[in-house]
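ok here's the first one, seq then struct tokens
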Amino acid sequence: MAHTFEDLVELEQSAEAAHAQYLAGTTDPDAARQAWIDAAAAFQQAATEHAEAEGKVRYEVEMAVKKAVRHPESSEG
């Protein structure tokens, strides 16, 4: 399944949110950790598929998405 850049941003945002939940020390840290791992893995898989479909370098796709998620003000315009 080909993913759009926007799909990748949403997946990375989910991974970041799961990571924050884990760091917040939820009542079930094992479940929170697994949710984070699963969300991060979903993002990585989608980034790989997107890069292959677009003929791009996977690392560059990943970095562009992470920049858009972590620094949205610098990716506007």
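and now the second one, same deal
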Amino acid sequence: MTQSKFVLVCTLLSLGALIAVQVGQNQLIPTIDGKAYYQLEDFSKVKKFDIHIHINTEETFFIEQAQADNFQFLDIIDDRPFGLPMDGQQKIAMLHLKNFSKNMAVATTFPVKDWGSDDWMENTITGLEKSFLDGAIAVKIWKNIGMDLRDGNGKFVMVDDIRLDPILDFLVANNIPLLGHNGEPRDCWLPLDEMTFSQDYYGSHPEYHMYLHPEYPSYQDQIDARDHMLEKHPDLIFMGAHLGSLEWSLDELAKRLDKFSNMYVDLTRLSNLKLHTFNNRKKTRAFFIKYQDRLIYGTDSSINSSTSPSEFKKDINDRWVSEWKFYVTDEKINLENFGELKGLKLPIDVVDKIYSKNAIRLLGLQNW
């Protein structure tokens, strides 16, 4: 080997060692563009965060699997009219937080059952302050505002209602992020035969199929109200759940991310992201690269006491690994009723952001 070739080889080997130190012990795949990529087998080695979890049981089997798979997570409390009541969700969340504070964080919420009362605002802020003292670090606002709650005149209360402004101002003043599930997927307002993924659900639950209820606010009404809320509160740190209910269009989602600098979205409607990739992988991958600082991994998993612990552990592990495959490899993936697509194979720095760093920044968990 000539001296010049020897120097070149040593330089490349040194550079490779430097990259390995920067990302830990994960095996890297060198590519011609000079970027490094995770492999499928790196899944359990990489520290990850699932920002959309609902724990409805005191049992710890989900947390055990999260630990095994190197996941931290946000447990979210909802003001929902079904399942475990809000107070029960809060009690369970705080129990787990006490025992697993290095593994999880908690997003609280507020009830709207006394919306019309004179002391609702004062009681709501008092309740939030207590939740923060107990350890909550974010607030969830649910789709019941916009799709269920009505004022004394029978008019739907939307998320940009002026009576919510003091709550949002309080969050801004205390640097508390708001998570918003506003409206539903656009499929909810479409006929069954025009839906992309939701035919089975809305076919079985016509009471939630907004196409059959034109007297309710429209899909655009929900999006407009959410956007108006953000316009009124530009300093509000906000994460739109379920791709901000803009799952059907990366272009529409990009418009909001461009307009609202403090807006993030979670990636919980993966079927839509796979469809975007199936239709135009290059565009979808470019979207992830461009908005890598604003996208946060999540699954919207619900953990209930009736679930078989061993079966659930396998199911959530399978799901986490499958979704990791979509983001970090370019292997073939089947999208039911559509066909095969290739995974996005995002660079390590992008994966680290959507799987951990963005969640930690959004939630203010800088010491994690």
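notes on #2: Residues 1-36 form one domain. The two ends are 48 Å apart (CA to CA).
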